[in-house]
Amino acid sequence: MQTTKYLKLLLVLSLGSSVYAESIKVEEQIAITKPYTKKVKVGEKCYEQTIETVVNCRGNEETNTIGVDTIIGGVLGVAVGNQFGKGSGNDAAKVIGGLSGMAIANDARNNKQCKSYREVTKCDPVYEYQTQEVTVGYRNCANFNGQRVCKETKKPLDYLEVTQKIIVH
């Protein structure tokens, strides 16, 4: 080691100034960390919920019969048909109006929308935020000529490259 220093000194003296690099062994590696928070699913919260749906009422017993609404539709249809034509044309208009009114009223009942309710179980995820320290790099330190030299890197180093410039006046 001493001979290397003398050779460097001799080189400096002959050239006037010099820059040289030297590898020194890292004495301490300190992990650089930062907090990292992530959302983690830890379970589920379940509950019962009533769902309302609209269904066609066709198929119910009360919609398969001729009800008051069908009779009212027929009467209104005859009244509207009476406004058209004269003589036998008027009679035909009353019959067509009555049948049309009954058909419209019956179809309206058969296409009536009913509400249906059912219970369902729904589950929502439950999350927690967890924080942990994550290593993001290393501070590599060594002593060089009585001074502490450190360099931060992503991975730990075994040696540091130190450059030194010597100027002779």
Task: Summarize the topology.
Layout (H helix, E strand, L loop, with lengths): L1 H14 L1 E9 L2 E29 L11 H14 L6 H23 L2 E32 L2 E7 L5 E9 L2
Antiparallel strand pairs: 1-5, 2-3, 3-4
Your description of this structure?
The radius of gyration is 48 Å and the shape is rod-shaped. A hairpin with a 2-residue loop joins strand 3 and strand 4 (147-153). Helices cover 30% and strands 51% of the residues. The chain is α+β, with helices and mostly antiparallel strands and 169 residues long. It starts with a helix and ends with a strand. The chain has a three-stranded antiparallel sheet, with no helix packed on it. It has a domain at 58-111. Helix 2 (68-81) runs antiparallel to helix 3. The relative contact order is 0.29.
Q: In short, what is this structure?
A:
This protein has 169 residues and is an alpha+beta fold.
Strand portion, in percent? over 45%
Identify low-pLDDT runs: none
Strand order of the largest sheet: 2-3-4
**Which radius of gyration do the C-alpha atoms yield?**
48 Å
Tally of helical runs: 3
C-alpha end-to-end distance: 25 Å
SSE series: HEEHHEEE
The pLDDT mean sits at 80
